[in-house]
Amino acid sequence: MLEREVTVINKLGLHARASSKLVQLLSTFRANAFLLGRGREVNAKSIMGVMLLAAAQGSTLTLRIDGEDEVAAMEAAVALFERYFDEGS
Amino acid sequence: MNEAHASVGVLLISHVGIASAIQSVATRMLGPLPLQHEILEVAFDADLDQLSRQVDQLLRRLDRGSGVLILTDLYGASPSNLAERFDRGRVHTRRVSGLNLSMFMRVMNYAEQSLDELVNTAVLGARGGVVIGRA
Questions:
Q1: Angle formed by the axes of helices B18-30 and A16-26, to 10°?
Q2: 0.95 surpassed by pTM
């Protein structure tokens, strides 16, 4: 099991399209993925779950990934956060 | 989760303007939607017998052997009553009313599920989308 802190740096936060990108990316891996924030833990492969976090720009979340391909999944997910969900800013 | 069955089809039946808007927003958010789906919007002066024939065609087009999930906007209204006519038809259908954006998005998020599983997914998606203030 891997855990990493990730910061939401894109301007719009984890809005619907960003959440959808994260869910779709993580769904290509076998490992289970969870996001923890503000005392809440949600399935990071569930669009409604991720959106329930309503994580705005500047929020810090914990990404927990558990499974055989957890290293690749974590790398890919962290990269998505770091490139502003491909939104430019 | 069962990989063996073909994908379920989804039919949205609503009052005019609702299903098409939900489909359009969901497509912008999620990209190409993974489940085959069709839309039927029912005008207030619509002839339900005529629409029944249309529903019948849409159901047969959508069914790949795993059945069709029918989502309607308002229980007891014509779109939902129209769907009820197909409860025991040639195509296996299940109905869920109370269509909203979060219901539709959640259904598309669980495209691999069976018809019976998707019914539950739809209900939880719709209810889970109702949040008072900050979640």
A1: 60
A2: no
